[in-house]
């Protein structure tokens, strides 16, 4: 299985083994670059012909009644492979799919037709906390492009030139890094949207402030960025300057005026510029006064961020999206606060798959943008599952997608990593963690209760050995992902100690063993870092009663 799952994969004939390819047609340089990244030789062998035509076949998605720049076909014959596409974007997607088919050994005779269901698919660096290092941004960007995302929003709360120093131009070094980010995105068919958050100090009636805001947009426009965001989230709900309160009836009126004035200024710079806004009310009831008036006061082509019923929503449904559309006259562009783990969630590590998003949400929204964690390497795992969902939500299988993501990031270490990953999935989208441990401890407790003590102890030792082996592996901080999750690795070590102590009581119920277990369990429970909870505590507490 390749990911994201293609829409119509009819490659069901005889297997085609490929050791090398030869390229002909258009965009061969692009194709060679992508194939080489997968370790596929382009020095000869079966021919791959890239045919680029702006036709109904290559641009129109019948089931959605809309045009797409990312639709493509791959036809595999015994002597030739034909890629049909309409432009750079669709060739880029097609060649990545072809490469995955070859590497996975899934290339067969037949035809594959593919296109994304969500139009806008991406992620936002929009969290509170240390910003990503430049090289991390580039690394995540390339991986997300490989898995079909097409949008990146730049909005780190702790980038001082995004928020605190919104009215100052970027220094040369920071602007140069943004330029490299933009250029890398363009090479990988990702659209960059640069965002500014002036609301902490913005003076709505001040022309000086508006001129500074416009100058900031022009500063970033100079490096090639044409998509902008104006974020008014997490700011005061009322006026901070007396003349603003005298001028506007309410804060929503000031926000509408600011967005419209910004929109007009941006269009004067370049009519092709796009604008996304985040309102101060970005979650809750879509029929509330602020968000209803805000949405209805904006131009139709301005995109509005919305997180759903909650800041971190457990579910995003088509009905909720339709409520938002009716109330605001805009489809929601979901700012999905998963896998982000800032603020009150700082003790959680969100490594699970995306869940709770309606399979037909693409019909009712302007897209979905995932807010990431401050941990770039760790963010890659859930982001890959989000990319899979956004490309083909109808065939999205969260568990298979997660397994693929873990293997992509960790390779041969993925199987052992599952012993800690089992505990790192408690988040808004899933309040239940430690599924594997829960099943194992339940099974072992059943064996113990039904007189199969010897078997229970043997299997318990086997499980604990795997846990210890995993602990040794993830303690290696030379692996970037493991270095990021050390806070949870330390709690995992405590978990292993508790498991060993439980086993010791099962083997010998002497008071000394129980005292040690009680001490370790108390230490485990007193640590605020969130790992496994109920199943471990329940087993330990019942063990103390033996």
Can you tell me about this structure?
With 546 residues, the protein is of the alpha/beta class. It folds into three domains: 8-114, Chitobiase, domain 2, CATH 3.30.379.10; 121-396, TIM Barrel (Alpha-Beta Barrel); 435-544, Up-down Bundle (Methane Monooxygenase Hydroxylase, Chain G, domain 1), CATH 1.20.58.460. Helices cover 45% and strands 16% of the residues. The strands form three sheets. The protein has an eight-stranded parallel beta barrel, surrounded by four helices. It has a six-stranded mixed beta sheet with strand order 1-8-6-7-3-2, covered by helices on one side. α18 (511-526) packs antiparallel against α19 (534-544). The longest helix is centred in the C-terminal third of the chain and has 22 residues, at 453-474. It is globular and about 80 Å long.
Share of helix, binned: 40-55%
Report low-confidence residues grouped into runs of 5 or more: none
Largest sheet: 8 strands, parallel, barrel
Spatial sequence of strands, sheet with the most strands: 9-10-11-12-13-14-15-16
pLDDT average, as an integer? 97
Class from helix and strand fractions: alpha/beta
Rg calculated over all Cα atoms:
26 Å
CATH homologous superfamily identity of the largest domain: Glycosidases
Overall tally of domains: 3
Strand content: 15-25%
Measured distance between first and last alpha carbons: 48 Å
According to DSSP, the number of beta strands is: 16
The CATH first-level class of the largest domain comes to Alpha Beta
Query: CATH fold name of the largest domain, please?
Result: TIM Barrel
Number of distinct helices: 19
